[in-house]
Amino acid sequence: MTQQTPQATNAQKAQKSRRQQKVGTVVSNKMNKTIVVAVESLKKHRIYKRTYKQTKRFQAHDEMNTCQVGDLVRIEETRPLSKMKRWRLVEILKRGSGIVPVEEVLSEADPDLTSATSAETDEEEME
Q1: pTM value?
Q2: What's the pLDDT tens digit per position in 65-92?
Q3: Which fold has domain 17-96?
């Protein structure tokens, strides 16, 4: 009675694969155990038939806080974990550089510093 039949195990596998999966890039990991993943998809305009790129952002649960900005990850649908989180991290497909752009670091440290440096570069270009 405790042995599982092959049909039962196949049913469990089919049930797990029913959840939707998406592949995207980690945009932010500033929250604890949460990442923001940007998923790009190509869509076709219904009237003009032109293909355009649509980017959607999903908040996903990262249990071990392993993701860095720029990582290529696979996320999967799950039950609601919080107000915004309905996805969880399945695997990291490709590690990103993890390097944050200098402008972003400067803007977090001192907003006046970035405006001063942009003003200096504008003056140099004018000369």
Answers
A1: 0.66
A2: 999 999 999 999 999 999 999 999 999 9
A3: OB fold (Dihydrolipoamide Acetyltransferase, E2P) (2.40.50)
